[in-house]
Every structure is written in structure tokens, then in C-alpha cells.
Amino acid sequence: MAQRVPVGQTNSPMEPKKYPEAPTVLERAKVQAPRDDALARYNLAWLCKLLAPQGSKRASLPVPKRMLQSVVSPIRPLAVVMAIATSLCPARADRGAALPWTTYEAEAMTNTGTLLGPKEALIAAESSGRNGVQLGAAGQYVEFIARADANALVARYSLPDAADGTGLDSTISLYQNGTFIRKLPLTSKYCWLYGVYPFSKSPGAGLPRHFYDEVRVKDLSISSGDKIRLQKDPEDAAAYCILDLVDLEEIAPPLNPPSNALSIAAYGAGGAGRSDDTAALIKCIAAAQAQHKTVWMPPGIYRIAGVVDIPPNATIQGAGMWHTTLEGDAGRYSDASKRVRIVGTGSRIHLADFAITGRLNYRNDSEPNDGLGGAYGAESTISRVWVEHTKAGAWIVNSEGLVVEGCRFRNTIADGINLCVGMRSATVTNCAARGTGDDCFAIWPATFLAQDYAPGLNVITHCTGQFPFLANGAALYGGRSNRIEDCRFEDLTYGCGVLISTTFPVGNNEFNGTTVVRRCDLIRCGGFDHAWGWRAALQLCLDQHSLSGMDINNLNITHSLSDGLSVIASGSNAQGGLGTLSNATLDRVRISDFGMVARGRHGLWIDGNARGTLTVSHSEVVEFKNESTLFTLRFPELP
Ligand SMILES: [Ca+2]
Fold first, then answer.
1. Please, are residues 352 and 386 in contact by the beta-carbon 8 Å criterion?
2. 1-5, 470-474, 586-590: least confident range
3. Which range of residues forms the domain containing residue 227?
4. Ligand 1 center from residue 133 Cα (angstroms)
5. Is 101's pLDDT higher than 80?
6. Cα(537) to centroid of ligand 1, in Å?
7. Dist. CA 187–CA 574, nearest whole Å
8. How close is the Cα of 130 to the center of ligand 1, in Å?
9. In the prediction, which pLDDT does 578 show?
10. CA-CA distance, 419 to 404, in Å (whole number)?
């Protein structure tokens, strides 16, 4: 979701978002020391049973008497209590997307470089696990043993910027069992933003962010047990290369053409990444529409420079996200009308098995979105599409029952996916967003367009969001009975793992029904936003409206950078926020620690301006603080 003002999906005029005042949050947080650790002493054993995987032996284990004594003893050091809790309540492996690759963290590899992190700001903070390895001198390397066969590789890396902010190109050398395999092309052209939102490309603005990009290569032949090395050889000329992680994946061969299909090759598409294939794709779509056939995009790189409208009932089928790519034209990408834009215009659209690679390297919310956009009416699907280097990966409006599954949203300038105006009963599942420039997953029922459906009943499920360079893992901004469930959010260095916020305008689509966040892991979340200060791993924000009907359950919130969970009412008036929290419950929520980076924070924090009530049950919260005389924390089961 656009952090301050909307990301343009269309050329329609949009409402400006309200820009919050500079944070008073930080100042308030310094006021007092923690007041009580009562929740930490409360019902831990029962909680652990509830958090254990269903059907596992752990769920039926009797609680050791020794542990119960530890839990209820007020004089027992809290660290001991937490150690027991951690050992019994691990993060759940079935939360998040089922990722078909294996990630190897650079910091866990054998290396001769310099380890970065975990507490530094800047580049280390945007790294997975807040760690990376810097290769500076020629000959330095990272090396690991492949644990499974693979034929494709993604490396997440950071290079320095050029002095003028335009980025630079370089390479890194790939070795397998000591043999040089190939150079991996690297660039920092799509990285390095400066200043405050919406940022600039001028290093003189200071405050750099967005350090990482990724390179992907296929046609490798890696066997389990092979020794894989990325080395900075003398001709790999950048002053340094920081490796964050390497993914190895065994990808399927290209799909075969579907029956009853028209190939874009027959309409003049070159597929070699050299010719402009926009007209060929548009012609093929029109012919397929007339003949009621599928559009087939064979393996290849198709240069697209403009809007490709997808009509109702169209199926656009590629050979796989590793094999068919719609690529932006670098030479014309500064012209917003010449970008790669796939725009839905009706119902029963099916997009599947291709990649969209844009060329965008700056943010301007008055420009239309590239990547995936448009309206998908009823009964549409977007399956296994990989979007990279666009503004938002997908900015979707006016759809009912849309299913988005198996997609990858990477290294975008804005959101991974935003379910915006008029979205009803959409499901986003098994998608992974990382390195995005705004919320990884957002539901914002805005009204800057006419809405075809009453917004609500959308779900983000079994998704993984990691290290965006602004904003949050998942964010809900209004609407009826939306849900975030079975997800995993990691390394939110600039925002929340999950944000439930009234900040942005939604017309009459304020939160209603029951908003659900459940069965999620929030790990190293609660980072620092330059306008909001420290946000919590999970935050309820009452700045513009009230929130009611919040059902938050079965969460693991660990290693939070600041607060574990907060209710804030920072607003644009002296009295703070305009809303009240009611009918809100936390159940089976574990906040085991907090303040990994920021001092003076809290496990559960109620801002001094917040009003309302929050009921906490069956939960383990290591520490809490309620700074508001107008807010009640209810612990109905606490003795
Ligand atoms: Ca890492």
C-alpha cells in the first residue's frame, strides 16, 4: 500500500493521503520503565499446548511441574521463563508460503569477507536475518554446500551506488566444486533511494535505503553436496559486493503449449529481448479473443513498452515464470506510457506462468502503476507470476473472488500486491514478497475510483513477506471482515509485520465486521519508519477512525526490533487519534521478547493517547505497559 499517498493504478485522479505528524511516539516511549510482568507469569503451560502443532505429540504432553512453578513464581527471573517458553513454542513451519527453493544465508556460509549486522543500521538492517557478508578485496568469497539438486540460482546482493546516484554495473564469479562456471551480472541501477518519502535518486539528500537487488540465473547443474562459491575476482570491479542470501531451486522445464491456443510468435513476437513485442502481444490477444482461444507465450524474453489490456474471458499462458518474461525497455522506461503494464479489464481473466520485469528505479505516485494492474471482475485468477522492478507488483481493483496464487513480488518500488478499490472475496495465497518498496501485502479499500463491489471478505493466507525497504509485511486499512492468516513476516526493518490502521482514506469503507489476524509468525518486525518512529511488530493505529471487531489469535511475535504489539493513537491533533478500540481480543498470542534494536520499548504497549479496551487471554506477553488512562487492558483469566 502506498505509504503516504496512493500508488496510481490508473490515470484517474486520486485522493491525497494524510501525512502524519512527526512522531511523538518516541518521546512518549521514554517516559517510564516497564510496570508489570504479570502476563509473563500467566498460563504459559496452557499456551504452549495450544501453540503446538495440532495432532503432534507436543499438544498432549503433560506440563512439567517444574515449569509451572517457574511460570507462576514472581521472583523467578524472566529470562528463565522465556527460555522455557521458547523451547516449547517454536515458530510453526506451516506458516507462510510453501517456497520451492532452499535459502542459504550468506552469514551462515564459509566466507573470507566481512560479516555485517545484526544491529547496525543501513545495509545490515535490510538484510535477511539482519546479516550479510561483504566481499571487498579480490579473492574474497562466500561458499556453501548445496543440500539439494538445483538448476537455478538467485543471489540477493548489494553494490555501491555511483557518485551521481545512477548506480553501477558489476559481476560476481560463480564457482562449483572449484571450477569457474560463469559470471553473474549485477547492478545497483535499481537500488539506492535517498531522503524521505517518496525519496529521490540524489545521494545529496542523504538517508539512503533500498540497498539490495537480486540476480537470477538458470541452466545450472548443481547436485546435492556440491560446493558453491561466489567470489569477487579481480575483474569483478565494484568496490564491494555484499551477499545477503542465495536461493537454489530445481525448476521445471518449460511448459508445453496448451491446446486451442494462439502463439504470440505467430503474430511477430521475437522473444529474444531485442525487438519491441508490444504490438505482437496485443494483436495475438485480439485474435485469441475473437476465436475464443488461449494466448500462448513460448519461452523467451518479450520486450513490452506500453499498456496491454486484458479483455474479459482471456487466458494468457506462459511457459513458466523462469522461462517466459515480459521485460520493460530500459531505453524508454523514463516515459511512463512506455512501461510494461498488464491491465485487467473484466471478468474470467486468467494469467499464468510468466514473469514481468520492469525497469523502474524511482517512485512517483502520480504515475500509473506498471506490472500487474486493472480490474478482474468475477472468477479471475493470477497464478505463478513473478513481478520485479515495477512500482507495485500488482495493484488490483474491482474484482470479486479473484485468486492470486504462487506469485513472487520482488524488488518493487512500492507494494508487493495491493487489493485496492472494490475488492471483495479475493484470496492471495502461497505468494512471497520480498525487497518491496512498500507493504508486501496490502488491503486498502480506497474510493478514488467507483467501486464495483462492496469491499471486504478478502484473505491473505499462507504468504511470506520479507524485508521491504519501507512499510509493512501485511497491512489492513479498512473494509469488512478481511483476514490475514497462516503467514510469516520477517525482517520488517522499517515497519510492522502486521499493521491494522485507519490512517488512509477509505470513504465509507471503515473497518467493520470482524477483522482477523491469526496463525502468523512475526519475526524481527517492528522497525523504524521515518514518519512514525518505531512501529511494533503488530500495531493497531487509531489515528483517524475507531477500530472494532479485531480478532487476533495464535501469533508468535519474536525478536521484535521495538515493541511486540502496540495500540497507538498518534494523530494530527493535539488530543491524539480520533478513534476508539472496542470488541478487540488477543488470544493465544505469544510475545516472548522485544527491543532487539530499540531501547525502552515494550512487549505490549498502549500509547498514552489511545482510548478503548483490549482483552487478552491465553497469551504469554513478556512485559506490557498501558500509558493511557482512557484505555483498559483486560486479562479475564489473570488471578
Ligand atoms: Ca542474510
1. no
2. 1-5
3. 101-249
4. 8
5. yes
6. 20
7. 46
8. 6
9. 85
10. 11
In the chain, the percentage of residues whose pLDDT exceeds 70 is: 84
Please report the beta strands in 287-402, taking only residues with DSSP state E, as ranges in sequence order.
294-297, 300-303, 306-310, 315-318, 324-327, 340-345, 350-357, 371-378, 381-388, 394-400
Ligand 1 centroid, distance to 243 Cα (angstroms): 7
- Alpha-carbon distance 614 to 587, whole Å? 11
Residue 113 lies in a domain: yes
Cell 564491494 sits on residue: 240
Ligand 1 centre from 461 Cα, in Å? 25
CA of 412 to the centre of ligand 1 (A): 19
Interstrand relation of 528-529 and 227-231 (parallel, antiparallel or unpaired): unpaired
The pLDDT, as a whole number, for residue 93 is 67
Q: Does a structural domain hold residue 473?
A: no
From the CB of residue 99, how many other CB atoms can be counted at a distance below 10 Å? Answer: 14
Q: What are the beta bridge partners of residue 261?
A: 294
Total length of the chain:
639
Q: Report the pLDDT value the prediction gives residue 498, as an integer from 0 to 100.
A: 98
User: Does residue 350 lie within any of the structural domains?
Assistant: no
Q: What is the pLDDT of residues 413-440, one digit of tens each?
A: 999 999 999 999 999 999 999 999 999 9
What does the alpha-carbon distance between residue 421 and residue 403 come to, in Å, rounded to a whole number?
16
- CA 496 – CA 517 distance, rounded (Å): 13
What distance in angstroms lies between residue 106's CA and the mean position of ligand 1's atoms?
6
- Residue 525 CA, ligand 1 centroid: distance in Å: 15
Q: Is residue 205 part of a domain?
A: yes
Average pLDDT on 559-569 reads: 97
pLDDT at 611: 95
Q: 303-337 burial, b for 16+ CB within 10 Å, e for fewer?
A: bbbbbbebebbbbbbbbbbbbbbbbbbeeebeebe
Q: Are 579 and 34 in contact (CB under 8 A)?
A: no
> CA dist 515 to 4, 419, 481, 636, Å?
23, 15, 5, 22
Q: How far apart are CA 315 and CA 292, in angstroms?
A: 9
| pLDDT-based confidence at residue 91 (cuts at 50, 70, 90) | low
CATH at residue 228: 2.60.120.260
**Looking at the 3D structure of the chain, how many domains does it have?**
1
